Amino acid sequence: LGDVYKRQRLTRLDIIALKNAFDKAKIPGRGRILVLCADHVADLLVQDQKFAAQYYDYESGAISRLYGFEVYEFDECPYFNTSTKKKLAYGAVPTATDRQSSVAFSLKRTMKANGSTKTYLQDAANNPTTQENLFSMRTYTLCLPKKAEGLGAIVSAPKPAAPAQGSNG
Prior knowledge:
Distance between the termini: 36 Å
Helix content: 10-25%
Order of helices and strands: HEHHEEEEEEE
Largest sheet: 6 strands, mixed
Oligomer: single chain
């Protein structure tokens, strides 16, 4: 939790501000997705009893719906530099001024392309110890925005420095 003390926490007001920005940009209400990073999920769990009670739906895998967004959690959300607001390249090593973000997008403004599916089968005859067939599949999928709209990110700002103690003017 050391990082929590170096950044401002996410609140429901931040998600409402994101909803308002999507509304003003006329992003369709249906199909809005919000993907929270682990820090932001922890922020909401600590601050908001209602969110904590609705945290996880075991049937759908969704955390809950918040203000028109379907909400999910993902551990590998992108990092942004808090000073420049630029997204770090995938695989870049974050520095002290970088924070993991939560991202939002509209399904109406994105596309998905599935590649071919490769199947693997290990026959029981090749597995004499357990005498079981092993079957697995692999499909690579590419997901991209159709155009640069309907995308957003919430990046926690650094915590403001504490005021100096001891001077009374």
